[in-house]
Amino acid sequence: MVDTSDMPRPETPATLLPAGLPEESQDIAEDHRARAWWQRVAWAKIGLFMVSLFLFITAITLMKEGARDMGPLVRDRFAVTNPANSLGFGWLFAYVIMSGSPVAAAALAFFDAGVIDKLSAFTMITGSRLGASFIVLFLGFIYVVRGRDRANSLSMGLLSLLVTGSTYLAGLVVGVALLTSGVIDGAQLQSGLLLNSATDLIFDPIAAFFLAFLPRWALFLVGLAIIMVSFSLFDRCLPQMALKESQMGRMSRLVYRPWVMFLLGASITLVSMSVSVSLSILVPLSQRGFVRRENVIPYIMGANITTFIDTLLAAVLLKNPPAFTIVLAEMLSITLVSVFILLFFFHRYERSMLRLVSWVTSSNRSLAIFMVAILVVPLLLMLL
User: Fold this and answer.
1) Among 199, 192, 160, 178, CA closest to 327
2) Which of 225, 283, 309, 375 is deepest in the core (most CB within 10 A)?
3) Which span out of 13-27, 59-73, 78-92, 240-254 was modeled with the highest average pLDDT?
4) pLDDT tens-digit profile of 4-40?
5) Cα(227)–Cα(218) distance, rounded to whole angstroms?
6) At 69, which helix (H) or strand (E)?
7) Rounded to the nearest 5°, which phi and psi values hold at 79?
8) Which of 16-20, 41-45, 186-190, 267-271 is predicted least confidently?
């Protein structure tokens, strides 16, 4: 056999060499990754978010324009003349439209128009949160009517309402003290010249368009309808929260720590700007037994603080610095009350809430008494 190891090898033509192959392969891989990233972006949801934000600002502009002419109706027909009246009015208003955030925005619009004073705007916003918490209970009540187990169907809604009611009513006292003392009067946020000119340029012509064929007071109702649509669209543009089994296992080790749940509720609501979204994540956890009713209490407390993010935005859009102070007083008062409960007597508070839930769900009579009470109380406040 001839040894050819030392023999010269013929050169391969340059045209046959895959010249530049590593660089081309890298470019192709980068293009593939870029296309994959581009395809992963939920452009439809981003577009839906932009539409919801546009409608939100439009609604605030229209409500601001129409609130002044709605003043006589609010003061005379609904007899909203003091903080107690406005508390009941906001409470019932949220019942009627099945949402709290539009009512809070309406309270700021009424304040901006001079229809109600600072304390009345504060209590109306508080009432809007009390009324909004009823929605979860109402949905649970529908499940009971359909033959589901009373305790399981109503527990989450009852806890939401009771925790919200107890913390907000205590926060009402703290908030009124903050507003009347003037401690936070300097905490005012101007919207800025750039934002003012941009919103005036874009949204004032929209208000003028509606004024061309509608009375000014009707703009408030149109704005109220639009803001409800904007919140609905915003909920739809949020990503679905999927929990894997491994994530559920890690979560189960954290739900027994009140401060962790408190911060979790505040964080998720801050990101989503929706209490309904932040509470919906509790449903799969509770169904699989990873979270008990008592674990939900600090979560709801945290969610009730950062739920005012959209109301803060509405205050900035109104270009009324004291309106920002009112919303800040709401957030500070609820934060102080919640932190005080968590620090000093959370377990007693927890047992009290759970005993009350157990009593309400123990019989049809106790459930009827509770339902009548939460309907009669705001009506009585309207008569004061």
Assistant:
1) 178
2) 309
3) 78-92
4) 545 555 444 444 444 444 555 555 555 555 555 455 5
5) 14
6) helix 43-72
7) 55, 45
8) 16-20
Residue by residue, DSSP assigns 2-56 as: ---TTSPPPPPPGGGS-TTHHHHHHHHHHHHHHHHHHHHS-HHHHHHHHHHHHHH
Q: Which of 232, 186, 200 is nearest to 64 (CA)?
A: 200
> Radius of gyration over alpha carbons of the chain, in Å?
28
- CA 94/CA 114 separation, integer angstroms: 21
Average pLDDT, the chain: 75
Judge whether 265 and 159 are in contact, CB under 8 Å: no
Q: b/e string for 91-124 if b means 16 or more Cβ within 10 A?
A: bbbbbebebbbbbbbbbbbbbbbebbebbbbbbb
Cβ-based neighbours of 114, under 8 Å, separated by 6 or more: 68, 71
Given a contact cutoff of 8 angstroms between Cβ atoms, the answer to whether 338 and 301 are in contact is yes
Residue recorded with tokens 């304040």 = 111
Residue 324 exposed, middle or buried by CB count within 10 Å (0-12, 13-18, 19+):
buried
Higher per-residue confidence, 21 vs 372: 372
